[in-house]
């Protein structure tokens, strides 16, 4: 559990950094520059998911199994075969994307992106070192190297993105060159990540990696990495794959609908402002709920149904409530928040609809984690792939008619379909009621209370304000967030949605329990 909390904390930091850096970056390069970056970013997101969520998890599991049997040769076999598999995988991904860069850029409708796609393809060559080393340490129960490498990688990447884009833009280079400079951060971050992991290898005098030779049972290890690793990666890449679909066809569909080149780029850049909102909105719910997944796995393997049911119910409460609060809260404050972060309130209606995705994404990631904890690995992946097909088709239908609003609506519908399928599958596994009718009533009341307060507060604020400036929008957003969040939490606590035992398992649980005792 300590290892899980360390990884959760590292994931929380890296996801916040990943969302927050987009704000100063957009402020530097503008909406068109932001569009350029976001068109290519999904390829980095795929490489990140492969090296963080999928392969290290499966490698660590195989190593842990061999260590339980005290089979050092088996551990070496896993390490060596995994490195070879990841090396082949990384090279294949690199070759595929590098030599398809021109075709991908043409499919996107912007040939100028070819060089940027070629640049980002190099990150896949780092895959064997990052995934292999992380998987090894996680398999031995040491989560510190993975946590340090994740935070270090993201920190160096963000610094590179902001500094390169600022310098290149100030010196008058094109926005495509500034985008290339920003994407170079994926390489600097990846190299720092490898150096941090190698520092742990050197410090611990680890000799498990040498000499690298092919073991007899590599086929079994390769098959397991291919099947299980890919399935877990797909679940971890949900938001990135949605971004990839938008990158492939939203801009080109806007062009086909008659929108001019520069306007289409700006519209896509404004639409992409929604990505930081989605990332920040889902990070809290998924980090909190997925911390419980190892406990669900342990209870499942022990056959302790009571414990497993309790943890599943708590994970669903956290995931759905946090997702609901974040989605509804952002919809209420989207206009001043959009202006606070991105200098103006353009596209607020499109982003507001897009924010509904936070609720469904939170539930999808939570339920997927629960099913994986019960060793149902493939169903979440297949469901997500099916939902992505729905998203792709709906984009074709909606974007030509409704522009970027159509892209937002198609995302929400696709995620809603995934959510329904996953929840039905989870319900088939159990006979007990996950969430009571009282839960929905209290959650709805909290949402209405928060919305009523925020709408009244903003109405009075705008009446008293002489003009709408970015500073006033910042004050409006921050105070509204704090007050709205407090009202939501107090109503949830007053409604006894969480039992005292459940409150103790949340961050600052003792304080929440104390508040609950006072107001009840």
TrEMBL record:
Q: Where in the cell is it found?
A: Cell membrane
Topology in the lipid bilayer: Multi-pass membrane protein
* Pfam family membership, one: Polysacc_synt
Coarsely, its chief localization is membrane
Keyword entries, A-Z: Cell membrane, Membrane, Transmembrane, Transmembrane helix
Q: In the UniProt record, does the keyword Membrane occur?
A: yes
Membrane spanning stretches? 42-63, 83-109, 115-137, 158-176, 182-202, 222-245, 277-300, 312-331, 351-371, 378-399, 405-426, 438-459, 471-493
Q: Tell me where on the tree of life, at the top rank, the source sits.
A: Bacteria
Q: What is this protein called?
A: Polysaccharide biosynthesis protein
Provide the species name: Bacillus salacetis
Q: What is the lineage of its organism?
A: Bacteria, Bacillati, Bacillota, Bacilli, Bacillales
């Amino acid at each position: 559990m300590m290892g899980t909390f360390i990884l959760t904390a590292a994931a929380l930091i890296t996801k916040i950094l990943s969302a927050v850096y987009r704000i100063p970056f957009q402020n530097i390069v503008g909406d068109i520059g932001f569009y350029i970056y976001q068109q290519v970013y999904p390829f980095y997101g795929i490489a990140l998911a492969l090296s963080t969520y999928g392969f290290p998890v499966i490698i660590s599991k195989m190593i842990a199994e061999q260590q339980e049997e005290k089979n050092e040769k088996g551990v070496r076999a896993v390490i060596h075969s995994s490195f070879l598999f990841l090396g082949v995988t990384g090279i294949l991904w690199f070759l595929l994307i590098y030599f398809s860069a021109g075709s991908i850029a043409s499919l996107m409708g912007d040939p100028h992106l070819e060089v940027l796609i070629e640049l980002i393809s190099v990150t896949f060559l780092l895959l064997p070192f990052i995934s292999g080393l992380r998987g090894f340490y996680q398999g031995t129960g040491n989560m510190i190297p993975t946590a340090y490498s994740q935070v270090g990688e993201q920190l160096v990447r963000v610094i590179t993105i902001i500094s390169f884009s600022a310098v290149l833009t100030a010196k008058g280079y094109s926005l495509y060159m500034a985008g290339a400079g920003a994407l170079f951060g994926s390489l600097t971050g990846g190299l720092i990540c490898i150096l941090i992991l190698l520092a742990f290898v050197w410090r611990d005098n680890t000799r498990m990696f040498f000499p690298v030779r092919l073991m007899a049972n590599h086929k079994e290890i390769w098959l397991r990495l291919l099947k299980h690793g890919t399935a877990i990666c797909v679940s971890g890449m949900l938001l990135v794959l949605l971004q990839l679909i938008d990158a492939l066809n939203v801009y080109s569909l806007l062009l086909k609908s008659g929108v001019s080149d520069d306007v289409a780029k700006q519209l896509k850049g404004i639409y992409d402002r929604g990505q930081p909102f989605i990332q920040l909105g889902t990070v809290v719910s998924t980090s909190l709920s997925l911390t419980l997944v190892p406990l669900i796995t342990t209870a499942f393997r022990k056959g302790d149904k009571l414990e497993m049911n309790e943890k599943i119910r708590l994970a669903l409460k956290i995931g759905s409530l946090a997702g609901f609060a974040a989605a509804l809260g952002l919809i209420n404050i989207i206009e001043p928040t959009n202006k606070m972060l991105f200098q103006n309130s353009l596209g607020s209606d499109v982003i507001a609809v897009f924010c509904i995705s936070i609720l469904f994404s939170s539930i999808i990631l939570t339920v997927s984690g629960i099913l994986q904890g019960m060793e149902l690995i493939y169903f979440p992946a297949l469901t997500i792939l099916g939902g992505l097909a729905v998203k792709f088709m709906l984009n074709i239908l909606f974007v030509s008619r409704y522009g970027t609003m159509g892209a937002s609506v198609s995302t929400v519908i696709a995620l809603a379909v995934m959510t329904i399928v996953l929840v039905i599958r989870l319900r088939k596994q159990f006979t007990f009621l996950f969430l009571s009718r009282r839960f929905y009533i209290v959650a709805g009341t909290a949402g209405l209370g928060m919305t009523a307060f925020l709408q009244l507060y903003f109405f009075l604020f705008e009446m008293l304000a002489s003009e709408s400036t970015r500073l006033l929008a910042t004050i409006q957003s921050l105070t509204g967030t704090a007050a709205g969040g407090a009202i939501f939490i107090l109503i949830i606590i007053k409604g006894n949605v969480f039992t005292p035992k459940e409150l103790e398992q949340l961050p600052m649980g003792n304080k929440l329990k104390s508040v609950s005792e006072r107001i009840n």
